[in-house]
Design brief:
Largest sheet: 2 strands, antiparallel
Strand order of the largest sheet: 1-2
Number of helices: 16
Order of helices and strands: EHHHHHHHHHHHHHHHHE
Low-confidence stretches: 1-11, 466-481
Oligomer: single chain
Radius of gyration: 22 Å
């Protein structure tokens, strides 16, 4: 690997200028991913009106991205380990750029679906590659933790800022929601080529690519995400049948991995208690967060009559984590340990959701503000530290897989949270009057609270034993990329 020495000598807390440059590129890519998804959310009504899409097709404009992203994430993480992290990051960034531009040129619904699916697949390969550049290249301990927290804060900021930028761009022309990421992608690509050094291709002699494992696990995740995405649109029998197919594929994958001499995912990885806890907590935390945003957005727009842009500005307070993640959270992790910070963040998430349970038909923004603010604080304390926990202690050659697992958990959790909140809201709504709609929203708000409580309970098991479970033995003050 290429090594960039820190100017601080033995001080692993400080990073060199080159290291900051590499982090800047990686943050730009994860910001791009967040802003891309958020802007499209805002633009969907305008896209439907311009292209004449049905409601079902419009739903799949979002679901196609989730399907590609969630389905190929684990394979993308392993590809980074096998074929080189920089190589995968740069190549799939180019694919992301290309298909984002094609989405902006779409004149038919099917063209948009293809573009969104391909963009999701590109993000599925790009995101774990970028994360593994950090987890294998930055010195273990405070330096890596700071890099991961800056990285995660940028990701969250992309989603928050994207809500507002998406509204502004859609007011001009919805196609700019696709063209703007093309411009940003091009800048990030040029910076990546200049700043991220080449690393030697990993030695794969005697380690054949596990094609059977790749096909079965990708198929299993694709089918499972598909089942969750359409759960509120088809009957329970069809959903159960689709889930059963996914389970069969997962069982086949497990059998293949047990027998493979070079498995796609080494099953022993799941004996790592911290990794398993982090993934389960990430799934539930993500599900609660996105389910909550879904319900609050419907409340503001359908019941209160707020515009898309007004809703975006109302929700942007959650983006406070963009500031807190790289500033406050590292200090708390150093002081109290990663496990305690995660637990504190999840407890705050429970509080944020509980504060919204008495929701009324005419609540002012002042009454909603404490819940949104506490949720932003919770996100800053939970998201980044979960990223640390999900990759800590994993061998370098499996960092891509660990990152892929974590992102799959976040993505799949989002899909489950949205579907569960939608299903509960629909089931609890008897009509279309304001009071009946409110009953549905209030019932659906129980979903994120239950998810956050589950995540907090799981994370509590990580509190046993050490006071500080993040920093390992000091390593040389260098950044390998």
């Amino acid at each position: 690997m290429s090594t960039v020495q820190s100017p601080s000598g033995g001080d692993t807390d400080r990073m060199s200028g080159r290291a900051w440059g590499v982090l800047f590129v990686l943050c730009g890519a994860i910001f791009l991913e967040g802003i891309d998804v958020a802007m499209l959310n805002v633009a969907l009504p305008s896209i439907r009106d311009d292209l004449g899409l049905s409601t079902g097709t419009l739903q799949w404009v979002m679901s196609a991205y989730v399907l590609g992203y969630g389905g190929f994430m684990l394979l993308g993480g392993r590809a980074a380990d096998l074929f080189g992290r920089r190589r995968m990051f740069v190549f799939w960034l180019m694919v992301f750029l290309l298909f984002s531009g094609l989405g902006g040129l779409a004149t038919e619904g099917w063209m948009l679906l293809v573009a969104r699916f391909a963009t999701g697949v590109a993000a599925a390969f790009m995101a774990p590659a970028g994360l593994s550049v950090i987890t294998t290249g930055f010195a273990d301990g405070p330096q890596r933790n700071k890099a991961l927290l800056v990285y995660s804060g940028t990701a969250a900021g992309g989603f928050s800022i994207g809500l507002v930028i998406g509204g502004l761009l859609t007011a001009v022309d919805w196609r700019w929601v696709f063209f703007a990421p093309v411009i940003l992608s091009a800048v990030i690509l040029l910076a990546a080529l200049a700043l991220i050094p080449n690393s030697p291709r990993p030695d794969r002699r005697g380690r054949p690519v596990d094609l059977a494992g790749a096909i079965t696990v990708t198929g299993a995740i694709l089918v499972l995400v598909f089942a969750v995405e359409r759960a509120t649109h088809v009957d329970a029998l069809r959903t159960a049948g689709t889930v059963a197919v996914s389970l069969v594929l997962f069982i086949a994958f497990t059998v293949i991995e047990r027998k493979s001499s070079a498995p796609l995912v080494r099953l022993g990885l799941f004996r790592h208690g911290g990794l398993v806890r982090a993934n389960l907590a990430a799934l539930l935390f993500s599900g609660g967060f996105f389910g909550f945003q879904f319900v609050v957005t419907l409340y503001l727009q359908e019941l209160r009559g707020w515009s898309t842009l007004e809703t975006s500005f109302a929700m942007i307070v959650i983006g406070i984590d963009t500031v807190l993640s790289p500033t406050l959270t590292p200090k708390l992790v150093d002081r109290f340990g990663n496990a305690r910070v995660i637990f504190g963040g999840l407890v705050l998430a429970c509080l944020a959701y509980a504060l919204m349970l008495p929701l009324g038909a005419d609540w002012s923004y002042a009454l909603m503000f404490p819940s949104l603010l506490v949720l932003g604080l919770a996100f800053s304390l939970a998201y980044g530290p979960l990223t640390i926990a999900g990759t800590e202690g994993v061998e370098e050659e499996e960092q891509g897989v660990a990152g892929g697992l974590l992102y799959t958990s976040f993505q799949f959790g989002a899909a489950i949270g949205l579907s569960a909140a939608a299903a509960v809201s629909i089931a609890a709504t008897d009509g279309s009057s304001p009071g009946e709609l409110l009953d549905g929203y209030k019932a659906a708000l129980v979903v994120p609270l239950a998810a956050a409580l589950g995540a907090a309970l799981i994370s509590a098991f990580g509190l046993r034993g050490r006071a500080d479970d993040v920093t390992g033995a000091p390593t040389p003050a260098s950044v390998e990329v």
